[in-house]
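Researcher: Please translate sequence to structure tokens.
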Amino acid sequence: MNALTSARRFSHCLAWLFVAASIVASLAGVARAQQDDTTLRVFIFAGQSNMVGSDSRASDVKLYAPFAGLEEPQPDVKFSYCIGREEKRKSDGWVALAPVDAVVGPELSFARRVSEHVKAPIAIVKVAAGGTTLGGDWNPDEPSGFKLYPLALDWIRNALADLDRRKLSYRIEGFVWHQGENDMFQKEYRAAYARNLANFMASWRRDLKTPALRFYVGELCTKTIWGMDHRAEMNAIGLAQREVTDADPLADFVPTAHIAIEIGGDGGLHYHYGTLGQLEHGVHHADAYLRTLGKEPKSARPLATWPYPKGGRVQLFVLAGHRNMEGERAFVEDLGQLKGKGALAKDNARIAFRYSLGGGFKVSDGWEPLGPAGCYDTFGPELSFGAALARKSKDDIAIAKFTHSGSQVVDWSPAGSETPSRNLYPAFLEFVRSSMQDLAARGQEVELAGIFYHLGENDMSFAPYRRKAIEQLSTLVDASRRDLALPHLRWFVSQQPPTDTEGVRSIDVTAQLAQLAAADPHFLHIRAFELPGMESPLVITTPGIVALGELLATSYLKSR
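Model: Translation complete:
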């Protein structure tokens, strides 16, 4: 090694040591500052259309009980924004946080969630524009297109300068980033996304003189039509995001693949989160931030007393599926409006309940009492299913639920797809197996009474997926029986009315399911074609989810 090379390496090491020391010092300062409840905490929100809030409506917020009131201004939260591409909507200085142009962005629920757990005042600066790329528009070094990086930097600096003029004490607390859909369509941008994202983050820390600035990078939603039609491309962006956040101690990857998306036209599929998804989107970023403070909201639901006698027989029911089995649009607050259903909102300690929701996003703490356990005061058909069984059967029962609202049927197939990170079968199999083993370890005689699967909703609207759905379902059924060594394991597959549009109508999945059931004495096809609460394609709301659970229970009891 020559002297010049040695000198360069020494200089490089010194530079990294300086950066590391700066970060350590800044983190120490941040830790001290967390005790300060008077300094204004400023959050930056940036990205493309799913950061803007495209295809959302403030007038629809009232439809989703857990988020009621977020259509109104939040006067205690300062807001500065520049949103859009050619025609930008801009705030005149700092204003009260509220929907812009009747559009809902994630900042609304983020602010309320954070404010519920942090006493300090908060402010949000938002710069976002749909259809923009990190490789071009947001490129710090060579911005092209709408040149959003320099625009955002100027906007943020001006907003902060205004706080200085007002002599307000503040600090930049975090940077929320949701973007990547457009980069996945350009080969060179897709391949460079990890490098570009790391440079993007480093540039903000440099330009805002905040070496310890923490980033919250939102996952792209796999439930959208792009999540189905461009799996490989979206997966490439997701892997790049994880690569960067895994390597950066000041960056968090925020899962959002399971959250709601807007319901489109007759087919139902869409590209954007829409109103409900945006509200959920903001909650996840808020929780990621609160987690860094040790203040993440948690609700303990302990099963204080084991409900079954030792040595007794327990029937285990496994519920599985996608958005409606998860309960995307069934809210606990709405149960009180359904005659005789209000009691479903209370925990039932006589039935042990175990769950993994959102593909592992939310997992139960062992066995809990059967009760509402969704991420947003939501629930699935398990509540009415368990109640109906308990009313009509003297058997001891336990329920285990495994769902991923952002999945498609191919994700459940043992073969999976070209995106292995979305393959659910191994985790599902282990979930069923461990549920049985845990009950046995507690001294119970376990009978796996059946797997209740609600057929993928999105698949029904997209011809390439609908065409293969029943074949993939059949392989799932066969594999589960083989791998669990239960050749006669019963499967109960429920089906809501499949999408009836020109592009998919000719693929008769109902007839295919009927044929599968006719050939298999341990397979029951349940036609859930008359459920209430299906005003929009694909999704079932509170009354329908309750009715679905009762239908599943009735179908099981009749089949015994």
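Researcher: Any highlights?
Model: Residues 3-33 form the longest helix (31 residues).
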